[in-house]
Structures are given as structure tokens and as C-alpha cells.
Design a protein that fits this description.
transport; about 0% strand; heme; Globin; Globin-like
């Protein structure tokens, strides 16, 4: 039986550690860091929890996503395609650091690109 992407990503605990590194990467990325620097530690914790839930649910895990939908979350932010690509690059870099293979990284990138219409220039 084929494992789900969620299982191949290592479940919630491993995904949560990945998300922490993704946010750290975003904070170091000159193209998008200003979008994240404004959040205090408590707000960052909420963002990380929502991203972890979203990652888990979107990869086939049992978790429920309790955040806003993507369009509502990103509406009015005027995110550019360049910023989206920068964010995806940060995610791929974190996945590489955590030892995920090309198959998992490519599946995650495909999922992220499928959300483009709810994120870019909305």
C-alpha cells in the first residue's frame, strides 16, 4: 500500500519542525521577510500552528485546518509572483534540510502552485 504524502513527510511532529524552519527561512529572505517581521512571538506561534495544520491536512493527515481560507488570508496583501516563488524556494530549502526526497518536494511544490490563484495579486 502506498503511503500518503502526510506519512512520507513524517506526520505532525516532523511537519511542525519543518514549518518552524520555513518561517525562519522567510524571516531571512530579503524578498519576503518584511511580511513576517511584524509578528510577535505569540502571533508567530499562531501562524506556525495554522501552517502546520494546513500542511498536515493538505498532505492527507487527519488534522483539521482551523485558519482562514487562502483567499481570505492573502486578500489585500498584493503578493507578487516573485514573492510566491521566494516563499516556495524557502519551503523547498527547508525540506532539503530535513532530508525529504525529490518526490516529496515536487508534490509539495505542485500543491503550493495550485494555490497561486488564492495568493498572488488578490
Amino acid at each position: 500500500m502506498t503511503q500518503s504524502l502526510y506519512e512520507r513527510l513524517g506526520g505532525e511532529d516532523r511537519i511542525q519542525r519543518l514549518v518552524t524552519d520555513i518561517v525562519d527561512n522567510h524571516l531571512r529572505n530579503p524578498l519576503i521577510r518584511t511580511r513576517f517581521e511584524k509578528y510577535n512571538d505569540a502571533e508567530r506561534a499562531v501562524i506556525e500552528r495554522h501552517v502546520t495544520e494546513f500542511f498536515c491536512m493538505g498532505s492527507g493527515g487527519p488534522q483539521a485546518y482551523t485558519g482562514k481560507d487562502m483567499l481570505t488570508t492573502h486578500k489585500g496583501m498584493n503578493i507578487s509572483e516573485q514573492e510566491l516563488i521566494a516563499a516556495i524556494d524557502d519551503i523547498v530549502a527547508a525540506m532539503a534540510k530535513h532530508g525529504y526526497g525529490d518526490t516529496e518536494r515536487n508534490e509539495v511544490v505542485a500543491i503550493l502552485y495550485s494555490l497561486k490563484g488564492d495568493v498572488v495579486r488578490v
